[in-house]
């Protein structure tokens, strides 16, 4: 029932902006409706600029506040940009009825799709004329064409515009009056009244509301300054003047307007005329095109299901087990009753299209994996009966709601299937879903600081005190961080900054696309929901939402797009309220890695691997998890997960599925006792360190696979069914109630559960205890269907890694090109499996990483695309090689003459040289770099000759070394120093190729390092000496504003994170640089499966090594005549390089039947123990016979 508008004062706000006007208002819709309620206003219009974002959400909030919402928009008119500001004129449109809603959707959609320019959607006049019905039109005061004409003194033009709008909207067109105290209103208001009297067009009074309270005008201006990238004190800030654009009371409006022309009464009249209200729509699915021979979607789905059942479960004689038949009929009955047959057909068809095009699809995602119909129609690839998954978790027969199937495609496959969808259903019926970008707490502080011109250092100090935890609000930060509150309380500058930051926080900032959601419908989508355009895709990882755990860590990579795409103005939640079909097309890089691995296996071994048929009890696969070799294993790569899996020592696929569910914030933070969380409990139960307790014999079958620990939501449903006598549909309702923590609903369910348990003789105390345990579980329990699907996917990746290691790691490297840190990690992993990395080569490398036989063993060759800044040059080199039938490039000039220099520019060629890709042509990188310009000129001449048809090196008849080919000589230049080579390799590829920077310090490392970085058994508080090269550093300010540092140290055995606190950093900061070889005095601990170092002292190794070397030890074998003959050479070195380091001889000799080692001190022969001397000694005696000691 609509509120009685006459019960309030005679005024309704009809021109109001919320934060959906994109940084033009700080007003949250809910706050607007609360303000209406407070002031006794029973209706209000929302007229955001060019859009009706999330309209269903607004209607829900208004209904809750018992306020009538009039939905509208302030639209921009095409071809009306003013000469002064360039801003287009606007018009206010309000929806009267269902026809008006349809027309408003079309107007806004076409404005965005066809008239988007300068960041704004513009409506063409022809669209207004076509879509005039069902709308109220207001002239938009000074922003409209009529107002502009009056202000320019052209009353004739103003009259022409007014007559035009009256012809369009008839009695529903009003001239808008506003009084904000602006100077131009002294001319505009009387002019508008005269025009009304002259033409007989009614007036309506509005206040152009952009903020709720007069005191918020500064916050409004700060938002405008932020949007336009200006300072708040800028003279050119284009915002509404004064402080009057706030939500005025009816009494305040009656003081401004005397209602002599009915301008106040007309606000109520218009509000009464606008009867449109949004109500949640029943789900509406597009028709699925049926093949010949089928009359209905229901019939065709049944056909596909039973065909799938024969394939998956059928015996040799074609019979299908009764259990399978019963489950099929149960699910089909629910699906058909709810009218969702078309939904399954649509999704199944999309997945089949992807596979037909050669792109993998994930085994399942979310609760859909619990459906046998989804399994049998190819939507999912895991058997719900085998893994004991529940259909009711996916589709509850006792609660009608749209099924939600998210699909994991490869990133390329995702776009291909999107193209297929548009082709099949029509571009007018398909759109992506909007994601409104909002300002977080840190960003709000930074933006507020920028517009207030607060020094960057001060802003930075404040922003860094806000916890980085996703979703942390300013309110949370002030409650948690005392230092933040203290700073703001004592500094007026910070107080104003925080005031404005609060006004910006959480407000809409930009329009982007949801990473995966796509809407498909019958007919024109623009007539059902308003559309917009965006070229931005949401940057946050798309979370797998779940009622019990909103902090899930499943995610997909963010994407980018250069072209504008059509999106709905309703987000994914509002789309469902509108009853439209939404499917999430998600791009999962792991699937692309699997596809590439399978391709490489086929190429190298000539076999096809069907992952659905690999053994699920493979010991070699489980060892990957048990040994923590997690690089590339889907969802199991983090150091924390690695640590838990090594502790768990999984032996079944059930263990992996359970850990996929448990390794989430809820379970990790669930306190079981003083020292353990839910994951620890699970591990202790598995290994018998704690007795398994099923609480009641009837629960053993449900909890057996998780050692008596409630891990899954489905277990709560099954316990409720078995013990509480709930139907599975009712059990799913209980699960949702637990997630929402509604005390009244929970108490109702608890009573029903205890009553049901009593009916099968379970005593009240035990039933109560079990229900309370299930309620506690709600903090961390997870969807088993999703965990099973992703657990199986993780197992598949581990299987490929275990059995086809080199192909798998090569595939992952190709998926990570551009991420040098990630590539370094993967090459380290490859070395751990004994796989050798071959350097890039212009004659042997592909554009991507490849598998290559080298000296009788398979190795990974670095791809040319892995070299930074080479870009298209990688493909150009490979293409040139193909044109030459694989004949190698002979020299630098041969290369530049053969490749397309438009693709491989000067910078790309330099990077290829610096990374060592031309070493086999000439190992003198310095000389090659010195001749780059000369070589490019030579190549340009050859390229030009080809272009002009005069032959040249692109000729098909060209062959290497043929008579008459003459290359210029290379100009001489100094070789590149070894240290510089390594720096280039590290910078351009991410890891060292020629050798390790520690190689020249290997003796020192072996002699003086008391801690190797692969060590995991360390003593707390003990000081160790760690020697390595610093591979990365990250300066950081602590909470007191002092500088500290995080870094990574690498030695021959591995890597370790290190931390340098402020007091130590102040003393040693000049030594803590990337690529520096250092000796660190550290305390060590093992955390999350990795070694963590706390630095106490720092020393550059090359500066302290002379003080560290106390003795040189030479080993001599007295039984080796050739070695004894070299002692004279040793003596000559002693004479030539006298110094301060003593020398000991360890002489091994056979005395009788025994081998003895005699230690002899060489008196009066101390030497210089530098690299030159030690290298000479090694050359004479062999590297194993020379060492240093400290």
TrEMBL record:
<keyword id="KW-0808">Transferase</keyword>
<dbReference type="Pfam" id="PF01336">
    <property type="entry name" value="tRNA_anti-codon"/>
</dbReference>
<keyword id="KW-0239">DNA-directed DNA polymerase</keyword>
<dbReference type="Pfam" id="PF14579">
    <property type="entry name" value="HHH_6"/>
</dbReference>
<dbReference type="InterPro" id="IPR016195">
    <property type="entry name" value="Pol/histidinol_Pase-like"/>
</dbReference>
<keyword id="KW-0235">DNA replication</keyword>
<feature type="domain" description="Polymerase/histidinol phosphatase N-terminal">
    <location>
        <begin position="12"/>
        <end position="79"/>
    </location>
</feature>
<dbReference type="GO" id="GO:0003676">
    <property type="term" value="F:nucleic acid binding"/>
</dbReference>
<dbReference type="InterPro" id="IPR011708">
    <property type="entry name" value="DNA_pol3_alpha_NTPase_dom"/>
</dbReference>
<protein>
    <recommendedName>
        <fullName>DNA polymerase III subunit alpha</fullName>
        <ecNumber>2.7.7.7</ecNumber>
    </recommendedName>
</protein>
<dbReference type="InterPro" id="IPR004013">
    <property type="entry name" value="PHP_dom"/>
</dbReference>
<keyword id="KW-0548">Nucleotidyltransferase</keyword>
<dbReference type="GO" id="GO:0005737">
    <property type="term" value="C:cytoplasm"/>
</dbReference>
<dbReference type="Pfam" id="PF02811">
    <property type="entry name" value="PHP"/>
</dbReference>
<dbReference type="GO" id="GO:0006260">
    <property type="term" value="P:DNA replication"/>
</dbReference>
<dbReference type="GO" id="GO:0008408">
    <property type="term" value="F:3'-5' exonuclease activity"/>
</dbReference>
<dbReference type="InterPro" id="IPR004805">
    <property type="entry name" value="DnaE2/DnaE/PolC"/>
</dbReference>
<dbReference type="Pfam" id="PF07733">
    <property type="entry name" value="DNA_pol3_alpha"/>
</dbReference>
<dbReference type="InterPro" id="IPR040982">
    <property type="entry name" value="DNA_pol3_finger"/>
</dbReference>
<dbReference type="GO" id="GO:0003887">
    <property type="term" value="F:DNA-directed DNA polymerase activity"/>
</dbReference>
<dbReference type="Pfam" id="PF17657">
    <property type="entry name" value="DNA_pol3_finger"/>
</dbReference>
<dbReference type="InterPro" id="IPR003141">
    <property type="entry name" value="Pol/His_phosphatase_N"/>
</dbReference>
<dbReference type="InterPro" id="IPR029460">
    <property type="entry name" value="DNAPol_HHH"/>
</dbReference>
<dbReference type="InterPro" id="IPR004365">
    <property type="entry name" value="NA-bd_OB_tRNA"/>
</dbReference>
<dbReference type="InterPro" id="IPR041931">
    <property type="entry name" value="DNA_pol3_alpha_thumb_dom"/>
</dbReference>
